[in-house]
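We close this part of the discussion by returning to an individual protein. Part of our work consisted of pairing the sequence of a single chain with a tokenised description of its backbone. No coordinates are needed to read the tokens, only the vocabulary itself. The amino acid sequence and the backbone structure tokens for this protein are reproduced below:
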Amino acid sequence: MTARDGTPLGTVEVVLDGELDIATFGDAQRQVESAEATEPPLLVLDLSDLTFVDSTGVRLALLADDHARAAGRRFAVRLGSGHALRVFEALGLVDKLDVLPPKPAGGSSPDPAVP
């Protein structure tokens, strides 16, 4: 069963804000690992509210993508229109990862089943 936008029901979204760098990587990685443990059909890593992301944030997304592929599940990243998008574009990763569009104004979908 899927939501109106075609994403699987049971999607888990990890939303990070602030800065994602070596100092915050451990906590962010634990959040992603906890979400992965639930074996969702789709794991979304939302980086759109980050004010800063460096190579450790990119590493987090690439690891999550690798884990999802190995488990036969789907991974997507939400980059928004700020810093995270610029970093992933500069590295040529926007075309290599499943990138979801920014959430509508207000931060969430009107339908809770739609990420």
